[in-house]
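Cell wall-active antibiotics response protein LiaF structure dump, as promised
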Amino acid sequence: MKNGFFRYLIAAALIGFGVVLVLENIGVMDFNSRNAWSYIYPSLFALVGIKWVVDRVRHRGGSYFWGSFFFIFGALLLLDRFEVISFTFNDVFKLWPLLIVYFGFMFIGKSTRPKVIIESSSEKNDKENHNSSFFTVGNHEFNQPNWKVEPTTIKTLAGDFYYDFSKAYIPEKEIPITISALAGDVHILIPENLEFQVNASVKAGDIDIVGQTVDGINRSLKYVSTNYDNATRKLDLTLKLKAGSIRVDSV
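structure tokens r here:
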């Protein structure tokens, strides 16, 4: 593991120990080494879970699935310690229905790009090759320095999509990009000097395109930048979600 993760665990242990001391001082609990550990390790689970979720939101690794699982597990153990509910470490197996809940929203695997089916296909009326992934589940992140933008069609069951075009190499042509998913979040960053148009739609959710917003049921939004028609280098974005959020920001 990275050294940063160990530093985080040490910091979390200190935080948990400090919380226990505060609770002891205000009379919520009696402090001894055995009681302290019974409060500290659930706190560690909860804090690590929060870190993984925050890292995932900030696109720095992490995992929604495991982060939320560890947070819920730690929180339930703490509620047991405060005698709100009855829940022990061995009751972890009672949480298996969470798998159904997670898959109901979206199944998100590890923070690295998942294994997907990638095929090269050509449309009948288009000589450009399109990268296509059909009916996969997982996250799609394009934020590495100088990554190459190509015509792309992505169709997935569920997942998150993060595109940072300010870091990309973009050829001098019109580049179509289509994203279609049953559930997920789409976040796209576009530099100010790049012309683009967006056709976005959601069955249930919200859309925010450079400050223009809609939300609710069966919503759609179209946007065309000022000099799109005359530009040689430009993006044509088609974004379709059954449920989720679409956000396009200019940076």
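The first strand starts at residue 119 and ends at 122.
lmk if u need the other ones
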